[in-house]
C-alpha cells in the first residue's frame, strides 16, 4: 500500500458552534469509514504564504490556498480518489488535491 497526501482547498469554516459540531461529526464519520487507511488525520491550516523562486513572498495564499491536509493509505491513485470522494469538504464547495508520498 502506498501513502497519499490529501491537500484540502477551500470549504470555509463553520461559523456557529452547532455548525462546527456538525462538521466535526461529518469528518469523524468519514475518517471512521476509512479505518486503518487513515495514517494521519492531519489538521486544518491557517493563512498560507508562498515563497517564490525569486525570493519574493506572496502573503495572499495564492490562487488556490491550502485549507488542510491528511495522510491516507491506498493501493493506488484510483483507490485514493475513491476515498477522497467521501470527504465532507466537497459538500462545502472545496476540493482535494491528491499526491503520492514517496518514502526516501
Description:
It is a single chain. With 104 residues, the chain is α+β, with helices and mostly antiparallel strands. Helix content is 29%, strand content 34%. The protein is built from three helices and six strands, in the order βαββββααβ. It has helices at 17-34, 77-84, 88-91, and strands at 2-9, 38-44, 50-51, 57-58, 66-74, 95-101. The chain has a four-stranded antiparallel sheet with strand order 2-5-1-6. The longest helix has 18 residues, at 17-34. It is flat, with a radius of gyration of 15 Å. The mean pLDDT is 94.
Strand content: 25-35%
Q: Output the helix-strand order.
A: EHEEEEHHE
Shape verdict: flat
Structural class, by secondary structure, is: alpha+beta
Oligomer: single chain
The major sheet is characterized as:
4 strands, antiparallel
**Average pLDDT, all residues:** 94
CA-CA gap between termini? 15 Å
Walk me through the topology.
Layout: E1 2-9, H1 17-34, E2 38-44, E3 50-51, E4 57-58, E5 66-74, H2 77-84, H3 88-91, E6 95-101
Antiparallel strand pairs: 1-5, 1-6, 2-5, 3-4
Amino acid at each position: 500500500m502506498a501513502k497519499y497526501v490529501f491537500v484540502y482547498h477551500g470549504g470555509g469554516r463553520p461559523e456557529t458552534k452547532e455548525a462546527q459540531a456538525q462538521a466535526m461529526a461529518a469528518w469523524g464519520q468519514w475518517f471512521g469509514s476509512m479505518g486503518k487507511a487513515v495514517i494521519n488525520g492531519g489538521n486544518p491550516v491557517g493563512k498560507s504564504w508562498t515563497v517564490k523562486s525569486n525570493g519574493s513572498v506572496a502573503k495572499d495564499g495564492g490562487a488556490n490556498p491550502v485549507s488542510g491536509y491528511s495522510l491516507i493509505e491506498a493501493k493506488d491513485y484510483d483507490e485514493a480518489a475513491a476515498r477522497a470522494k467521501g470527504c465532507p469538504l466537497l459538500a462545502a464547495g472545496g476540493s482535494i488535491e491528491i499526491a503520492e508520498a514517496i518514502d526516501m
